[in-house]
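Hi Y.,

Following your request, here is the sequence exactly as I used it, all 250 residues.
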Amino acid sequence: MSYLGENFSKELSSNATGTRIHQYIKKETGCHDPYLNQKKEGNDIALSLMPKVREILKKDNSLEAYVKIAIVGNILDFGTFHLGTDFDAMIFEGLEKELKINRIDEFEEALRKYDSVLYLVDNTGEIVFDKLLIEKIKEYDVDVTVAVKEMPILNDACMEEALEVGLDEVATLITTGSDSVGVVESMISDEFKEILLNSPFVISKGMGNFEGLTEMNFKGQDVFVLLCTKCPAISKELGIDEGSHVLTTL
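Below is the corresponding structure, written out as tokens. Let me know if you'd prefer a different format.
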């Protein structure tokens, strides 16, 4: 709390503040990956659900079904316990939900328009469901580049977890060059920033990435956001109820 009192500023984004808090915790505890066990658990939970999820997709092979499954994966977040921890039930209940904001037609139009996409992933566990959506995207002859975190932060996916679930089988893997919460323009590497700002088609998963991207300028780029609203601030920003599932654009 003393650290927050000394370093908090109204000019800082929530992403930057959160990043500095977690970097401080890592430094003071000497633990570079405090959420390691939760990250492994997230992947294990998601992988255990794959047979059931694939059965669902046999009945509905539409692009929207894959998008909904990828968004439902965003529930696998150990930082939002107020939404519950029965992830099995939450995921299958989530698949029954309609998208509160649904830009599926624009999304499919982008898939037909572009030959490549930059995909910003979020949490471990969730990336198992992202893989399904990426497989569907590749049916549109779109090459996919997936960006993971360079170093551990919260339960976000790093290269190790991406390789663990086989994301390298369906996409080219790169890192953001940082351990920021979501995307923080001042913290990501120059190399990744150039890739991000020069990618005409971007898919962003999760609230942290959404918050960070809204602080940046994407001129002429198609940026799609897939998330579950897990806090009042993001829900208010999007004008929808907390716990809603969203496919929208910046």
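The chain has one domain: 36-249.

Thanks again,
Q.
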